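Quick start: load a record and inspect it. Here is Xyloglucan galactosyltransferase KATAMARI1:
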Amino acid sequence: MVNSNSKKFAKSSPFSSLFLLVVFCFFLLFAYQFSHQFFVHKYLTIKFNNTTLKQHQYQEEQVPAAQASVFDPCTGRYIYVYDLPDRFNFRIIQHCQNLSRTSDVCKHVTNSGLGPKLVDTSSTLPETGWYVTDQFMLEIIFHNSMKQYECLTTDYSKSTAVYIPYYIGLGIMQYLFGYSASQRDALINDFLHWLRARPEWAARGGRDHFMVIGRVAWDFFRTTNESKRWGGKFLTLPEAKNMTLLFIETSNMHENEFGIPYPTYFHPSEKSQVVAWQEQLRSKTRPWLFSFAGKRHPNGIATMRDLIMDQCANATRCNLHECGTGTQDCHSPSNILGLFMSSIFCLQPPGDSPTRKSTFDSMVAGCIPVFFHPGSAYKQYYWYLPSNFNKYSVYIPEKAVLEGTVRIEDVLLGYSDEQINEMRENILAMIPTLVYKDPRNKSDDIRDAFDVTVDGVLRRIHSRNVL
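Running the structure step on this input writes:
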């Protein structure tokens, strides 16, 4: 006897088998698709990233790289420049005829402060890059150079430093002789009143601010209100103590004062001009062992300078260029540069103040400077001159000259040709950073004194932790 359930199963088994076959086929298809997608995904992940990271993980890792591609090279170098009322700069040079009773300042403010193009009748100098530049025009030159700076910003919050283009040295020039103390200080007080009201000043108390002052610091260090005292009182005021102040000669009394080079006659607009000049100096014949250009003390008092001039006059190997006598014109750049280019050593004694524009003019001419006082260079221009002064200069203590225990000629004769050539090569290598390039041209292939100055200012502000 056959079981009834077995009969039912037997009757339905063909359909059941078909159903099971269909289910099995779908299972195989699903398994194939899953395994294929898994294999492809894993393969592409490894192939694409060469790691076991999945694709979305790789994309997340790429975010920093994308951000790095738009990194701002000016970060930490942005400079904010005040748009000053024109009475603090432009109007001063607009009335240049009032600035001096003895010289034509108007010709010197031309060409963005470089002065007239230098015409060299002796054909000693190249035809381009040379100007009759006055030693007090640095405020104008630096301001125009700043206009070419690649990291300027009008957003104070992004800035590291704040530049104040106030022509304070030119502003006080006309009031230094024959005017009262209040007249000398009037524009300075006006400027400080304007500055104190600025939100940029209030933000950090001026510790991120800097100024370029184209005169010696002693012109602004009057400590009383007596009109008989020299200069203005800017350096004695609280605001001046917070800023970074850049002078052509510091007082060496304040930690926020820094010496920067006097402007020379050479203002290249491209690197090729510098290279050509260096090569010309290397091949130059120098018949004189040493030389000096300057004046004696007007009151007949025997000063350090007078004693040095006497030694030069009595030495057969020294070329003395005594200014104001005969045809020797110290106001002719061609004459002065010709003197320096024909000399191995150039004497640089203190004058009315420790430093001289002549120091930089002589070095640009390839002449090795001879100093008699550390304040003439070694304690002034830390950012521009090697700390080992023997690499580029000679030092003879002024005491030895005053006491008559040393002959300058004997000291200089003690240097060998090899030592002289090495010192001159060091000077030639320094020339680009001792001069200010033409501020009317943007030249990125020359690192000049402006660039060194800006770097020094930014380093100082960063080191003060004011940001």
